Amino acid sequence: MNEARERLHTVSNVHERRLPVTCEQAAAIIQSLSSRNDLLWPSEQWPAMQLDDGLEVGSSGGHGAIRYAVSESVPGQRIEFTFLPMREVGTFIGRHFYEVVAATDGVVLRHVLDVKTSLRTWMLWMLVIAPLHDALIEDAFDKAERNLGLENPRPAKWSLRVRILRKLESRRLRSKSNVAS
Predict the structure, then answer these.
(1) Over 90: is that where the pLDDT of 17 sits?
(2) Which of 7, 34, 82, 107 could form a disulfide bond with 51, CB atoms 3.0-4.6 angstroms apart?
């Protein structure tokens, strides 16, 4: 195998939102993740996050084609997921997590993705996954703000690229379900 193809490529992606709330209020947002009353994940617009045993370590699931398992859970402070093998997406070796960090004027709600990928998956990340991921996380932060009763003067807006990618994915899924029927 070609050495360039064997080398793994780093993907690091961080989103933060400052919220003028207490740690306890923000903790409730994170603790609701993947529950029936999820106050963070924007399942109204994106594939729902589903975990087979809630936020318990070892619980597995994901959203859409993205698969992961809970690898660390500090209730109300941090929930970390380790990526599982994904046939459609390719090599994602690493983790992503949500955390609440105390700040002088409230808290910082943070999402971090830190993975190694194959060259093919890195290119897929750069061209397709990253814009969708970024839009999803910003929608999640907007949802958290709404559920905390905060006004957001600049809610996230999907770029033309994200709208096109979502339309293409919707067509692909419809086509796939028609073939299965």
Answers:
(1) yes
(2) 34
Give the rounded distance of the alpha carbon of 35 from its chain centre: 15
Arch. (CATH architecture) of 8-155: 2-Layer Sandwich (3.30)
pLDDT tens digit sequence for 44-79:
999 999 999 999 999 999 998 899 999 999 998 999
CA gap 112, 93 in Å, rounded: 14
What's the average model confidence in pLDDT over 83-100?
Answer: 91
15-46 as b/e, with b when 16 or more CB fall inside 10 Å?
bebebebeeebbbbbbbbbbeeebbbbbbeeb
- Give the C-alpha separation, 176 to 1, whole Å: 33
Task: Tell me if residue 139 falls in helix, strand or coil.
Answer: helix
Mean pLDDT of 151-164: 92
Cβ neighbours of residue 19 closer than 8 Å, sequence gap 6 or more:
26, 106, 107, 108, 109, 144, 145, 148, 150
